[in-house]
Amino acid sequence: MKTLENIEHMHTQESLNYMKQVYQTVKERNLYETEFHQAVKEVFDSLVPVLAKNPHYRKQAILERIAEPERTITFRVPWVTDLGEVKVNRGFRVQFNSAIGPYKGGLRFHPSVNASIVKFLGFEQIFKNSLTGQPIGAGKGGADFDPKGKSDGEVMRFCQSFMSELCKHIGPDTDVPAGDIGVGAREIGYMFGQYKKMQGGFVPGVLTGKGLDYGGSLARKEATGYGTVYFVEEMLKDNALSFQNSTVTVSGSGNVSVYAMEKTQQLGGKVVACSDSSGYIYDKRGIDLSTIKRLKEEDNKRIDEYVTEHPEALFFEGSSGIWSVPCDIALPCATQNELDEMGAKILVANGVAAVGEGANMPVTQEAYEIFLDNNILFAPGKAANAGGVSVSALEMAQNSARIAWTFKEVDEKLQVIMKRIYRDSMEAAKEYDSPGNLVIGANIAGFVKVADAMISQGVI
Ligand code: NAP
């Protein structure tokens, strides 16, 4: 006899098979792109109950369509060093999904950048941008260029060459890039200048993360780090916990990390460790953030310099060791897959209560499962680090209206957005029988809006 339960089970099984078959195609079509596979699998796994309840998504081939970028641009970036040598890097822009707005997402300059990295980031951006509730589609880009150790002139010439090609593909209503690893205010400034020269007009809405004196938004610099802490704070509050008097480790010492540390300290938490790719520092009295800001934002120094100014602090080579520092809250804010199974086991053994991803996909699947098995509160990056792109969208709004909000105005809007993302993710998780699971909730809440918009717009 066909009971309701049997029918539901059948739909779930069919959806699982459909999901697996599409995932297999994604793997075959994007051979060796392991980070991209990882990001797709994590989202697809969450969507099985949604597909079971909504068979029209399958009929409309939504998984096949959502995992295929609308457009991928790869280009040569030639530039000249201070010594007159000609160098060539590879530039990328992946325009992943424009169902709910112009492509939006950062540019990363780092030697590890390749098609897999750009596609994983672009794919994640679809759901993140949807979660913000703002009208922004998804894109990501960058180059395998390493700004480290380059002079200002070299960085400028690289950025100009990069933008000479990229400018053909972007615009305030089509694609609006921003910064990411290796791309801060300096690089955005050089690229903005070159865009202006190539296009022959001042178009503030073409890039976000701009300097304050030419169309940037107050609180954009702080937005991702602050937003991550606002999100984690909501999660802690729901579980009768808080940052107050907690011990916190924050990996990285770049844009996201510095402002996650700042907000943590403002909320009464003690940050005892941070890192860069060379190693980590441990300061049991609490990290002196003004030193980190000066070393990293002004002097371009390595993290071990901190201990020369604070001899009671310790420096350890190797960045992954940071997870051996006992803490209540861990905020991985550096890079993808930086917190693996071993790190997760040590954090759990040391009594961590919550983990919040400030970076994109910093926690491996195996590490996540350890947190899940041990009931550790977990804030996924897609939701927790959406504050950066949210304020980028606020920057676009200010540029369109030719106005500038105060820091307080932007920060208040950011807090409202982060709280709403948290609630929406919790509600979606509950609706699909995974109460409290923010990974599943964020994936579903982000997906449904984009999938419905894609269906409304026909097969394009
Ligand atoms: P960033 O300013 O370039 O800083 C990156 C930091 O991570 C640097 O301190 C870097 O050290 C460190 N790092 C790199 N690899 C590391 C490793 N294996 N172990 C430890 N530290 C390492 O970049 P960011 O903008 O803060 O971005 C950090 C992460 O947040 C990325 O995953 C990015 O995609 C994500 N994110 C950024 C934004 C944003 O608004 N910026 C928004 C959303 C998500 P070195 O200097 O030694 O390389």
UniProtKB/TrEMBL annotation:
Q: Which GO terms describe its biological process?
A: glutamate biosynthetic process
Does the entry feature the keyword Cytoplasm, yes or no?
no
Residue span, Glutamate/phenylalanine/leucine/valine/L-tryptophan dehydrogenase C-terminal domain: 217-458
Q: Name one GO cellular component term.
A: cytosol
Active-site residues annotated for this sequence: K140
Q: Which CDD domains match?
A: NAD_bind_2_Glu_DH
- SMART domains according to UniProt: ELFV_dehydrog
InterPro entries to which the protein is assigned, alphabetical? Aminoacid_DH-like_N_sf, Glu/Leu/Phe/Val/Trp_DH, Glu/Leu/Phe/Val/Trp_DH_C, Glu/Leu/Phe/Val/Trp_DH_dimer, Glu_DH, Glu_Leu_Phe_Val_DH, NAD(P)-bd_dom_sf, NAD_bind_Glu_DH
Q: Where does NAD(+) bind?
A: T224, N255
Q: Which UniProt keywords apply?
A: NAD, Nucleotide-binding, Oxidoreductase
Which Pfam families would you find in this protein's record?
ELFV_dehydrog, ELFV_dehydrog_N
Q: Does the keyword NAD apply?
A: yes
Cite the PANTHER family for this sequence: NADP-SPECIFIC GLUTAMATE DEHYDROGENASE 1-RELATED (PTHR43571)
Which NCBIfam families does this entry report, sorted A to Z?
A: PRK09414.1 (NF006929)
- The protein's name is Glutamate dehydrogenase
